[in-house]
Amino acid sequence: MFKVGDHVVYPYHGAGTIRDIEEKDVLGETHSYFVLHFPLVDVKLMLPEKKIDGSGLRKIIEQDELDNVVEALKNGPELPPSTSHFSKETENLLKSGSIFDAAHLISSLSKKQAGRSNGLHIQDRNHLQKAKQMIASELVLVNNMSEEQAYEFIDSNLLELS
């Protein structure tokens, strides 16, 4: 299970830290809540302990898994996700909480962007930015990088796409 001080990833929010476990009285019942803080977006979230198992919450990756992230950034799927405004596939990749899904999405959308003279559709640009933010938030905690260094890490591993 998780404890105060653990660095974790919560799907679609990115990486943060468990700051506290609080007891709250709700309708006469006492419940435990994990208090998560996401520093890159400066958000605090309270997650009920009884919903942790189904929430997708996971510990951040280990340092030795960074090479796999680089590989995913460089070698994502050739076919980018649908440009449909309601792309379920793209949303599901972001909601999975997997750093590797986010890296594949960045790779695919970057390839798509490189192949288009007029850039990406607004929804694709938003998905690309969200995926980069999710990876950057985890890199900051895994590799003790600054936010700027994390984004540079992502972009430098995409250079071969141009």
UniProtKB/TrEMBL annotation:
* UniProt xrefs under SMART domains: CarD_TRCF (SM01058)
- SUPFAM superfamilies membership: CarD-like
Q: Which residues form a coiled coil?
A: none
The biological processes this protein is annotated with in GO are: rRNA transcription
Instruction: State the organism named in the record.
Output: Alkalicoccobacillus porphyridii
Q: What is this protein called?
A: CarD family transcriptional regulator
Using the record's annotation, list all stretches that form the CarD-like/TRCF RNAP-interacting domain: 1-110
Q: Which Pfam families match?
A: CarD_C, CarD_TRCF_RID
